[in-house]
Amino acid sequence: GENVEQHPSTLSVQEGDSAVIKCTYSDSASNYFPWYKQELGKRPQLIIDIRSNVGEKKDQRIAVTLNKTAKHFSLHITETQPEDSAVYFCAASKYDYKLSFGAGTTVTVRA
Amino acid sequence: NAGVTQTPKFQVLKTGQSMTLQCAQDMNHEYMSWYRQDPGMGLRLIHYSVGAGITDQGEVPNGYNVSRSTTEDFPLRLLSAAPSQTSVYFCASTKTGGGNEQFFGPGTRLTVL
Q: In this complex, do A43 and B104 lie within 8 Å of one another by their Cβ atoms?
């Protein structure tokens, strides 16, 4: 099955700086790569996703890049704010209902 | 729309007890899934369903059963609870079409003593 590795496990950034989280996947057939944000005690919520026919996607302060040849994808958050503090999960899938998740990155934005 | 709902929010069981975690969605989504979340391990797929009457195993199915008699409901049954099943359980649903968002329920925190 699919194996997704995510780094780093924790990330502390100064408010206003950028944050980058990287993931690798093992199954070259995976074609859907979503990123979820989970606040403490809450459910995961989709923040951005990318499909394999696209190399980069941006939505305001967040962007995702995908390198299918190297089988890795990254989340970039610019101009970080305190409300960006959360756990972020990457995932990969061939099918919408069978997501394989990374272990998560706890992001702390220091004021 | 209520989206994806789960009951109960919290549950404490003794080893060997059985119970059913309920999940329902009102978005007419074909796909539904159950995940468990443990510290440092992300979310792992337990079982999934691509439509009423069709279920299949995910990554960690042992000790759990599911059924899907309607599009709306997808209950998860613990047959004989074990301490290793202490976790937070999330139900999710998505529509068909490729690359569509999985909507998660609020979760059930289960403790097995």
A: yes
Say how far apart CA A35 and CA B74 lie, in whole Å. Answer: 24
**For residue B95, is pLDDT > 90?**
no
Residue pLDDT, tens place only, B17-64: 999 999 999 999 999 999 999 988 889 999 999 999 999 999 999 999
Whether the predicted pLDDT of A87 surpasses 90: yes
Beta-carbon contacts of residue A41 (< 8 Å; ≥ 6 apart): none
pLDDT-wise least confident of A16-25, A89-98, B47-56, B76-85: A89-98
Residue of A nearest to B95 (CA): A96
Q: Cα–Cα distance between A36 and A46 in angstroms, integer?
A: 4
Residues in contact with B95: Cβ distance below 8 Å, sequence separation at least 6, in sequence order: B27, B28, B29, B30, B31
What are the chain B neighbours of A4 within 8 Å (beta carbons)?
Answer: 42
Q: Quick check: B32 and B92 in contact, CB under 8 A?
A: yes
Q: Which of B72, B64, B23, B30 is nearest to B47 (CA)?
A: B64
Rounded to the nearest angstrom, the gap between the alpha carbon of residue A57 and the centroid of all alpha carbons in its chain is 12
Is residue A106 less than 8 Å (CB to CB) from chain B? Answer: no
Give the up-direction half-sphere exposure of residue A66: CA atoms within 13 A in the CB hemisphere. 23
